Amino acid sequence: MAALWLSVLVTLAIQSLVSMVVFAPAVLAPAARGAMAMPSSAVGVCTALIYLSATVGALASSRLIPWTGPLRVSQWCLFLCGGGIAVMASASLPLAMLGALLIGLGYGPVTPSSSAILSERVPARLRAFIFSVKQSGVPLGGMLAGGIMPWLIARGGWQAAALLAGGACVLLAVLIQPWRRSADAGFHAATAQRHTSLLQALRLVLGHRPLRDMALASFAYSGMQMSLGSFLVVYLHDRLGYSLALSGAGLAIAMSAGAIGRILWGVVADSLVSPRRVLGLLGVAMSLSAFATAAFTPDWPLALVLVVSGIYGATAVGWNGVYLSEVARMVPPGQAAAATGASLAMTYSGVVTLPFLFTLVLSSTGSYVPAFIGAGCFTLWRSLSFFGDGAEHSALGRR
Q1: Residue 91, phi-psi category: left (phi > 0), alpha (psi -120 to 50), beta (remainder)
Q2: Which residues 6+ apart lie within 8 Å of 9 measured at CB?
Q3: Phi-psi map region of 88: left, alpha, beta (phi>0 left; psi -120 to 50 alpha)
C-alpha cells in the first residue's frame, strides 16, 4: 500500500505542475498583453494551440510509454512544459505560440503515463477514488496558477513568474529520477502495448460504443472545463472590474472546489451512484453553472460570484477522475495507456474546439454572455446520454 501511495503522490505532483503551466497563460494574459500587443481574450487561441499539440502527444503516448516507461515519459513532459512557458517569457508573440505548442506536447502524454503507472497498482474497490485523487492535480495546478502567479507577477513581473513556473517543472523532473527505475520496471503492460499503433488505439475506443459515448461526452466536458479555466480571470477582470488578484482568487476558488470535487465524486462513484450516472449529473450541474456565470454583472455580491465560481469548478473540473477510472476499467489488462491516450485525443479535441469557438463568439458579439450560454447548452445535451438506456456497460472482453 505504501508503494501505491508513493505512486499517487508522484503522479499527483507531476499533474499539478504541468497543469499550472497550462493555466498560467490565462493568468499572465492581462499583464502581458501590452508587451505582446494583443487582447487578453486571445488567450483562447493560446489554449487551442496547447491542446492541439496535446492531442498529438496523447496519441503518441501509446508508442512512447512502452519504449521508455511511463515515468521517463513524464519527465520529458515536465521538461517540455517548463521549456514552453519559459519561451513565452520572451514577450514575442510568435515565440509565445511556439511555447504553447511545446506545452501541449508535454501535457498530452502526462495522463496516459500516470494511468499506466496506477492501473496495475490500484485495487478495483478504490479505482475511481485513486484516479480522482491523482486527477485532482489538474485543479491543484489551477489553484497554483490563480493563487501564486498573480503574487509573483506583482513582485517580479509576468516574465519572472513564467520563468519560475518553468524552473519548477525542471526541478521536479530531476527530483523524481531516483524513483524512475522502480516505477518503470513495474510497468508490466509494456509487452501488450508495444505493438499498439496510433490507429489501433483509436479503434480500441471508437470501436466500442460505451467508450465512444464517453469520449464524445469528454469532448464537451473538457471544452467547458477549459473555457472556465481560460476565461474566468479575464471575464471577472474585464466585465466585473475586479482586480487581477481578486480575479485570480476566483479561479483559485473554482479550482479548489474542482480538486475537492474530484475526490468527492470518486468516492460517490465507488460506493453510492454508478460512475456513468455521476458523469451525467455533473454535466447538468456544470451547464447550470455556466448559465449563472453568464448572468454575472457588477451588481452581483462578491460572495455570490465566488460561490457560483466554486460550484462551476466543482463540476466542470471535477469529472475527470471518474471518467478516466471508467476508461481503465473497460479495457483489457495492458491497454490502459493506449485507451487513455486515444480517449484523451477526443477530450483534447474538445479543448481545442470549444475555447476557440468561445473566442470567436466573444470577438463577433463583444459579449461573454452568449459564449457561456452556448457552452452550457452543449454540455447539457451531451450529459443526457448518461441517463438513457444502457447506462451501465461492462468492460471490454467481459461483457
Answers
A1: left
A2: none
A3: alpha
| C-beta separation of 384 from 216 below 8 A | no
The separation between CA 147 and the C-alpha centre of its own chain, rounded to angstroms, equals 18
Q: How far apart are CA 14 and CA 187, in angstroms?
A: 18
- Nearest Cα to 16, choosing from 135, 137, 131, 169? 137
**Residue with the larger pLDDT of the pair 57 and 344:** 57
Q: How remote is the C-alpha of 330 from its chain's centroid?
A: 21
Rounded Cα distance, 232 and 145, in Å: 13
Nearest CA to 205 out of 335, 355, 66, 14 is that of: 335
pTM of the predicted model, to two decimals? 0.71
- What is the C-alpha separation between 258 and 132, in angstroms, rounded? 11
When computed from its CA atoms, the radius of gyration of the chain, rounded to whole angstroms, is 19
> Which amino acid type is present at position 78?
L
Q: What is 2-177+186-387's CATH topology?
A: Growth Hormone; Chain: A; (1.20.1250)
Cell numbers for 260, please give them. 475537492
What is the C-alpha to C-alpha distance for residues 81 and 101, in angstroms, rounded to an integer? 9
Lowest model confidence (mean pLDDT) among 78-87, 142-151, 186-195 = 186-195
Residue the block writes with cell 494511468: 115
Per domain, the residue ranges of the chain are 2-177+186-387
Greater confidence (332 vs 378) lies with 378
Euclidean distance between CA atoms 183 and 264, whole angstroms:
27
Task: Count the Cβ atoms, other than its own, within 10 Å of residue 81.
Answer: 33
AA letter at 300:
W
Residue 267 has pLDDT above 80, yes or no: yes
d(CA 45, CA 363): 12
